[in-house]
């Protein structure tokens, strides 16, 4: 008699719906609840290849295909009549699984499963905005782990996306409302749980407990904007048009995140909640859709540039290097002329100008590095 012990709950709704497990020599298995027998649940159990289980976790592979891909076609029935985590005895079945009537419908992926209330519970317990991010990179095939450089880059990518969503959301507010908000570092989030059970999951909490006149935090507006931009994944072919309303740094940070996911061979899923919400909000992108979007948006240069207008006193102008500096009310800003941009010739140090620039943002391990390229200038 073959035995396995459960190692991971993949879905829970009024009981464990789907779990993963291992046998005595480390073989991977998947159990799917098929019926209730008396006081206990019965599960169909199949052996699964670790890389195929990862694809299922990432939303690339549906449950039916995963179960039918079991090595050798062997499958079992087990009765959950013990505490979770205890050894389970598997009863081999002779009928082909495809003829058993116990398979789920085609097209059913992990992304479609009932959402748990973990994020909502954390938001209420902490009385703050909570964002949970999960990934399933190749190194998570055998056990739940993630490379340190992947984790670091992921945190930077997500924080940059939230920052630009936050700033875009603030621009939609009236000057009076915006001036009444405490927006300094309002987009920042702290890691509060490095890794949660299941796929490699990271729990983030708003760095400041924010509230506004509506009882919720400014960061909620940013995360709703994040929800909007992730909806692009629902219609990849329409992505260039759908991203036009988010053009600039927000679209750019989303495209860079998509490219990062392709490089790391993983999808990404997230959920967030605030104390004011009754239900967690959630979104994400599978690995295969990320790959499709990356190809479709490879040449979308018009979506990723953001125009910035600066007004101030010219304090630097180097005709040889094209470097310039402008002293504005918000401090000194520095930039350069683009390869085919306007010359700095004729500009006078100490005079006031209006510079229209294109801001280009690159990301590295330290975060964002922005460069201003002069597009046009006029004296004021």
Explain what the structure shows:
The protein is an alpha+beta fold and 380 residues long. Helix content is 26%, strand content 34%. The chain contains ten helices and 16 strands. It has helices spanning 50-57, 63-68, 118-126, 148-171, 175-179, 218-230, 239-242, 249-264, 287-296, 301-304; strands spanning 2-12, 16-23, 28-37, 40-47, 75-80, 88-92, 130-135, 189-196, 200-206, 268-273, 281-285, 306-317, 323-328, 331-337, 352-364, 367-379. A six-stranded antiparallel beta barrel has the order 1-2-3-4-5-6. Helix 4 packs across helix 6 (218-230) and helix 8 packs across helix 9 (287-296). The longest helix has 24 residues, at 148-171. The N and C termini lie far apart (86 Å). The model has no long low-confidence stretch (mean pLDDT 83).
Highlighted features:
single chain; alpha+beta; 6-stranded antiparallel beta barrel; 5-stranded antiparallel β-sheet; 16 strands; 380 residues
How are the secondary structure elements laid out?
Elements lengths: L1 E11 L3 E8 L4 E10 L2 E8 L2 H8 L5 H6 L6 E6 L7 E5 L25 H9 L3 E6 L12 H24 L3 H5 L9 E8 L3 E7 L11 H13 L8 H4 L6 H16 L3 E6 L7 E5 L1 H10 L4 H4 L1 E12 L5 E6 L2 E7 L14 E13 L2 E13 L1
Parallel strand pairs: 14-16
Antiparallel strand pairs: 1-2, 1-6, 2-3, 3-4, 4-5, 5-6, 7-9, 7-10, 8-9, 10-11, 12-13, 12-15, 13-14, 15-16
Helix pairs in contact: 4-6, 4-8, 8-9
């Amino acid at each position: 008699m073959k035995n396995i012990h459960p190692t991971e709950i993949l879905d829970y709704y009024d009981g464990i719906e789907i779990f993963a497990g291992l046998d005595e020599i480390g073989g991977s298995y998947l159990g799917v609840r098929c019926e209730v027998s008396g006081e206990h649940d019965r599960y169909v159990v199949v052996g699964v290849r670790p890389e195929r289980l990862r694809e299922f976790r990432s939303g690339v592979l549906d449950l039916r295909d995963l179960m039918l891909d079991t090595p050798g076609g062997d499958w079992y029935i087990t009765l959950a009549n013990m505490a979770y985590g205890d050894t389970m005895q598997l009863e081999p079945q002779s009928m082909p699984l495809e003829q058993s009537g116990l398979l789920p419908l085609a097209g059913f992926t992990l992304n479609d499963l009932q959402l748990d209330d973990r994020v909502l519970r954390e938001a209420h317990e902490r009385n703050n905005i909570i964002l949970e991010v999960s990934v399933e990179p190749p190194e998570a095939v055998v056990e739940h782990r993630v490379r340190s450089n992947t984790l670091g880059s992921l945190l930077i990518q997500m924080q940059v996306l939230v920052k630009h969503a936050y700033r875009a959301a603030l621009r939609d507010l009236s000057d009076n409302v915006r001036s009444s908000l405490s927006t300094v570092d309002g987009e920042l989030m702290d890691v509060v749980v490095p890794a949660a059970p299941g796929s490699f999951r990271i729990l983030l909490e708003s760095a400041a407990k924010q509230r506004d006149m509506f009882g919720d935090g400014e960061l909620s507006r940013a995360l709703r904007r994040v929800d909007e931009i992730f909806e692009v994944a629902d219609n990849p072919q329409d992505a260039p048009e759908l991203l036009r309303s988010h053009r600039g740094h927000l679209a750019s940070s989303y495209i860079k995140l998509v490219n990062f996911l392709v490089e790391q061979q993983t999808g990404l899923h997230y959920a967030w909640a605030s104390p004011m919400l009754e239900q967690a909000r959630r979104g994400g992108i599978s690995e295969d859709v990320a790959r499709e979007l990356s190809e479709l948006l490879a040449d979308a240069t018009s979506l990723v540039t953001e125009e910035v207008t600066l007004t101030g006193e010219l304090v630097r102008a180097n005709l040889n290097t094209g470097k310039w500096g402008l002293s504005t009310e918000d401090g000194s800003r520095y930039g350069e002329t683009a390869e085919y941009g306007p010359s700095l010739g004729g500009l006078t140090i100490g005079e006031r100008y209006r510079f229209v620039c294109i801001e280009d943002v690159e990301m590295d391990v330290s975060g964002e590095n922005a460069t201003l390229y002069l597009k046009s200038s006029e004296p004021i």
